[in-house]
Amino acid sequence: YVGWPGLLSAYREWLPVDNHTPQLSLHEGNTPLVYATKLSEMLENDVYLKLEGANPTGSFKDRGMVLAVAKAKEAGKDTVICASTGNTSASAAAFAARADMQAVILIPHGYVALGKLAQAVQYGARIVAIRGNFDEALAIVREIADGLGMAVVNSVNPYRLQGQQTAAFEICDALGTAPDALFIPVGNAGNISAYWMGFEAYAKAGKVLKTPNMFGFEAEGAAAIVRNQPVEHPETFATAIRIGKPASWDKAVHAAEASGGAIDFVTDDEIAQAYRLIAREGLFAEPASAASVAGLIKRHQHGLLGRGQTLVCVLTGNGLKDPDSAIRLAGDVTEVVDSDQHAVIKLLERRV
Ligand code: F0G
Description:
GO molecular function: L-serine ammonia-lyase activity; pyridoxal phosphate binding; threonine deaminase activity; threonine synthase activity
Protein name: Threonine synthase
Distance between the termini: 49 Å
Helix content: 40-55%
Order of helices and strands: HEHEHEHEHEHEHHEHEHHEHHEHH
Family: Belongs to the threonine synthase family.
Function: Catalyzes the gamma-elimination of phosphate from L-phosphohomoserine and the beta-addition of water to produce L-threonine.
Bound molecules: ligand F0G
Number of helices: 15
């Protein structure tokens, strides 16, 4: 390889890999931590955005998937299976292709953003769309995988969370310390649990002297943990986190409580507003990712934020994953004119 070697090499001593583990990589990880100038000024804190959409398949899922697929291959499996709201399936399909394995994905019919579906198609996954939601798809996967001899690569697979810890490592490595607080979307609740594992592991090893307060945000229409009861029919336009029975529920509650943070919800309107503010920073994240920034702003508005701290919001997925949401929320702002310079000048002289 040239350049960054990927996570299994870069964080080898922190991960369950040895000489028997296939050296699988799409050079995932090493994503930018971008200082958000406008949000920092607006909120009177140093706000950084962890750009997980810069991973090879455009989401944080690659961090856990590289390890989960490598370990499945090491165990002699030839097929991986997962349920997904889209990103997990794109990542599973990509790493399966890379490892010369098959991927089977179960998705909620009609509720996967276009970019994610396009990826799964192109990477050659077997795509099964169920007439039901993510929670039902995951329940089916967990029931059938063993009988079919397939490896489950949802975040109920412990290798997924171990791989996803590396994002917390990278944040600490980049800042030279742990942030004061971390803000992150919550869907199936795996990622917040993985970050907390990572921060704790780094603190325990003496790499950092503190751990951040962990703040996780569900979508209001899918806020099972906040309401302390499963949501039978979860709804939100942030389809990535349209999940009513989070698998890592207990781990997420533990992360919030043990870190001095909280799990809260944000409304679809708050998510949409944060989605636009992120774009003003020059960054394009998918709607679910904006729940982290929406949550940060919500805490500010409720007077709960304080000042002068180092805060990190995780932007979990690339905005290109869901072009329909961008166009729908902004409206089609394209101005169509004749192919003629005078027509273009006339248009541009009219201020909007
Ligand atoms: N953000 C994005 C872009 C996601 O795709 C997901 C989860 C989350 C946040 C929430 O992370 O589930 O660990 O709490 N997507 C899964 C999927 C469910 O199938 O792609 P979580």
